[in-house]
Amino acid sequence: MTTFGWVAPTREPPDHWNMQLAGWTLCQGHGGSRADCKHVLVCDVRQLTQAQRAGMAEADRPAWRLIMLGVEEAAERAHLLTIGCAEALPASTSLRELAARARRVDDMFGMLPRWRTLGPLTLDLFHRDARKGARWLHLHPREFGVLWRLADQPGERVTRQQLLKDVWRINSAPETNSVEVHVSRLRSKLADAGCEKLVETVPEGGYRLGRDLPFLFAGATHEADALDRYLRQVDWNAREKARSHFHNCGDS
């Protein structure tokens, strides 16, 4: 059964956008947070200003989870797609069309195990980078490859030869210290993010994710991502307030 989230001033979507009527399951977030939601988020943005809608799209990037409903201008829809929306649609969109478009977006999430969570870090296979909250570590592709490969077997040793084979795509052992150089650079970027103990050198040779980091092997609590922070402060009535102010000024 496919899951979607609802982002709006109301707790439940109206019938004409309620994908539960099309067989979907509604998720209310994890403890009120969207940070761990790896599924479509349907948003009624009719009461938001253009700036607020753009801010929401920017806050969710690069997750590409948002389907915004109530965006009437074609130019604005194109802009929202460019900066991070999965879909931007007018208010006239029917439930049937919404469900079809949501299914297409949802299929993207199932194509690969796109995300992995390592304590406070989220690894994103699509972007081949890691982030802590909204901050990207800007990993080199092979630095990311090393971290992703270690995450295949958390806490277990991965030899230098295995890294050369799986990350470098080299079956022999060339005379190069490329693995060591990339691991050193990776550790430096992890340290800047407060995760300096994440990658350990194994005495027998090779590397592993730190065994003394319990958050890797137990249910971790994750701080809300940028979208959660944005949603907590957004004023859903800003558009109406601005319109009311305009009319009042005209009446004076």
Descriptive account of the structure:
This protein is of the alpha/beta class. The protein has two domains: 3-112 and 231-251, Rossmann fold (3-Layer(aba) Sandwich), CATH 3.40.50; 120-216, Orthogonal Bundle (Arc Repressor Mutant, subunit A). It is 37% helix and 16% strand. It is built from eight helices and eleven strands. Helix 2 links the parallel strand 4 and strand 5 (87-89). Helix 1 runs antiparallel to helix 7 (226-233) and helix 4 packs across helix 6 (178-192). The longest helix has 17 residues, at 95-111.
Helix share bin: 25-40%
* Beta strands, count: 11
Which term fits the overall shape?
elongated
Order of helices and strands: EEEHEHEHEEEEHHHEEHH
Radius of gyration: 22 Å
Report strand %.
15-25%
In CATH terms, what is the fold-level topology of the largest domain?
Answer: Rossmann fold
Features:
Rossmann fold, five-stranded parallel β-sheet, Arc Repressor Mutant, subunit A, 252 residues
Secondary structure layout:
Elements: E1 3-7, E2 25-27, E3 40-44, H1 50-60, E4 66-69, H2 74-83, E5 87-89, H3 95-111, E6 115-118, E7 121-124, E8 129-132, E9 135-136, H4 141-152, H5 160-166, H6 178-192, E10 199-201, E11 207-209, H7 226-233, H8 238-251
Parallel strand pairs: 1-2, 1-3, 3-4, 4-5
Antiparallel strand pairs: 6-7, 7-8, 8-9, 10-11
Helix pairs in contact: 1-2, 1-7, 4-6
